[in-house]
Write a structure and sequence with these properties.
The structure holds 2 protein chains of 2 kinds.
Chain A: E1 3-8, H1 12-25, E2 29-35, E3 39-41, H2 46-50, H3 56-59, E4 60-62, E5 72-75, E6 78-82, E7 87-90, E8 95-97, E9 100-103, E10 107-109, H4 117-120, H5 127-138, E11 143-149, H6 159-173, E12 180-185, H7 195-207, E13 210-213, E14 218-222, E15 227-230, E16 235-237, E17 240-244, E18 247-249, H8 251-255, E19 273-274, E20 277-282, H9 295-314, E21 326-333, E22 336-342, H10 355-371
Parallel strand pairs in A: 1-2, 1-9, 2-5, 9-20, 11-12, 11-17, 12-13
Antiparallel strand pairs in A: 3-4, 6-7, 7-8, 10-18, 14-15, 15-16, 19-20, 21-22
Helix pairs in contact in A: 1-9
Chain B: E1 8-11, H1 19-30, E2 36-41, H2 46-57, E3 60-67, E4 70-76
Parallel strand pairs in B: 1-2
Antiparallel strand pairs in B: 2-4, 3-4
The chains are: A alpha/beta, B alpha+beta.
């Protein structure tokens, strides 16, 4: 009887683990992906959609078309995980049994944690939010745009910086720059989490006239007054407010008493096992790992989990550990980008922005659907970089 | 260390920057005025980030205690 693997979540991490296991083990494994929507979004594209540079069609595909033929897809919502009984309960009734469980449920956006955020702020962290922001930017005729972050951790730490840079360029192209002010309000005393990258970025922001407001942890929004207030006691006026909403782990994690206070899964830094459970793994945004929540992280974690499950099924010694590898592009506008490559032990040393990395990001954006979910990039030893182009 | 009634202890040892600071900010968000939060951090960046944020946000840094391989930051939520 084949080993039963249930994968919760059909994002980049879940899809890649499912396909790699099927590819590697064939008839020795039966893989089921459980996803509430059955649609797979390329989330890094939301940023471009908001700025009118991409269409929603390009960013969303039917998950079925991304899975190998033998991988089952259940369009269902998982509501409870029973680690000891090795089952997952589904919202519409019934449950699935598993020998190995992979939790790739991602993050949840919790708009209501910040008073006024849902009514007063735009965003680009979901397809619907990005489309709404695109509409607002189409009718924007100048004014003060404040970009802020309403809680850490959040997905893709460089994204607000990228948005500020690309927005500034967009305003110039639209002839609105002289009538507009762009402010990036950061929760930290620098542009974003990674210090070396902030040092590279801040002078560029200054050159472009993007004002950096530091130690601004969004506490509330007053849509009628057009102000956003911080935990530190500061207040900024805005004409258009773009916020990253607070993120939490999914309810199924908390409801199963598996998460921490934020709903993130306590996950081994190297084996990616959840808590003390040797047959449960987690990856991507769902974990509590002290590393970027991003598709890139999930992309590097997925082969480790697939390899470790395959070793267990085959009865061989597990060979792969996750070393914390992440790689992200960071758009700086004007057709240039830099790249952040790092792991648990090595902070990034980003190169000066250039056209090559911008092109690389665009090629990756286009090639994503054909190479990433299917695991078509070559297998590699731990620590090398499958996404490097 | 002086005798201070600690409301919450955050053991952020091993957590890279900005984890310890963000854990402190989270505790301040959820806490009550007067709460005393003890942050344990082995990250070098905390030595500048935490005092700078506490001053900016108008809270009180009661003491910074160097320990073996880490530091403790004792912060009172002042407003």
């Amino acid at each position: 009887m084949p080993a039963r693997v249930v994968v919760l979540g059909g994002g980049v991490g879940g899809t890649l683990v499912a396909n790699l296991l099927d590819k590697r083990l064939g008839r020795d494994v039966s893989v089921t992906v459980v996803d509430p929507t059955g649609m797979h979004d390329y989330q890094p594209g939301y940023l471009y959609l908001a700025l009118g540079e991409a269409s929603g069609h390009w960013l969303s595909r039917d998950e079925r078309t991304l899975l190998r033929g033998d991988v089952e897809l259940a369009i269902e919502e998982a509501v409870r995980i029973h680690p000891d009984a090795h089952t997952v309960q589904l919202a519409r009734g019934g449950s699935l049994e598993w020998d190995y469980l992979v939790i790739a449920t991602g993050a949840r956006l919790v708009y209501d944690e910040i008073p006024g955020l849902a009514e007063g702020a735009y965003g680009f962290y979901s397809l619907a939010d990005a489309e709404r922001l695109r509409g607002a930017l189409r009718t924007f005729t100048g004014g003060k745009i404040v970009i802020g972050i309403a809680g850490i951790p959040y997905k893709c730490p460089p994204a607000p910086v990228e948005f500020a840079m690309l927005l500034e360029e967009h305003l110039r192209k639209e002839g609105l720059r002289e009538r507009s002010e762009v402010v990036l309000a950061s929760p930290l005393n620098r542009a974003f989490t990674i210090e070396s990258a902030s040092k590279l970025i801040q002078p560029i922001m200054q050159e472009r006239g993007i004002r950096l407001e530091t130690f601004f942890n969004v506490e509330s929004v007053d849509p009628s007054a057009g102000t956003v207030s911080s935990l530190e006691g500061d207040k900024l006026e805005y004409d258009l407010l773009v916020l990253v909403p607070p993120h939490r782990g999914q309810r199924v994690v908390s409801d199963s008493s598996l998460g921490d206070a934020g709903g993130w899964l306590p996950t081994s830094r190297t084996t990616l096992n959840v808590r003390e459970y040797e047959t449960i793994f987690a990856l991507g945004d769902a974990t509590d790992l002290p590393i970027s929540k991003s598709g890139s992280t999930a992309h590097f974690e997925a082969p480790v989990i697939a390899s470790r499950i395959a070793s267990k099924i085959r009865g061989t010694a597990p060979a792969q550990n996750y070393g914390g590898r992440v790689m992200c592009f960071l758009e700086t506008g004007n057709g240039k980008a830099t790249v952040l490559r790092f792991d648990y032990e090595h902070p990034p040393v980003p190169p000066q922005p250039n056209r090559g990395w911008h092109m690389a990001k665009w090629i990756f954006n286009r090639a994503y659907w054909e190479i990433v979910p299917q695991g078509r990039l070559p297998d590699r030893a731990p620590g090398t970089m499958p996404m490097e182009v | 260390m002086k005798t201070t009634l600690i409301t919450t202890t955050i053991d952020a040892r091993g957590m890279p920057c900005p984890g310890p600071l963000m854990s402190l900010i989270g505790a301040i968000r959820q806490g009550q005025i007067g709460d005393v939060i003890d942050v344990l951090s082995s990250d070098e960046g905390s030595k500048t980030d935490i005092p700078a944020w506490v001053a900016k946000a108008g809270h009180e840094l009661l003491e910074t205690v160097p320990e073996d391989g880490y530091a403790r930051f004792v912060v009172r939520k002042a407003r």
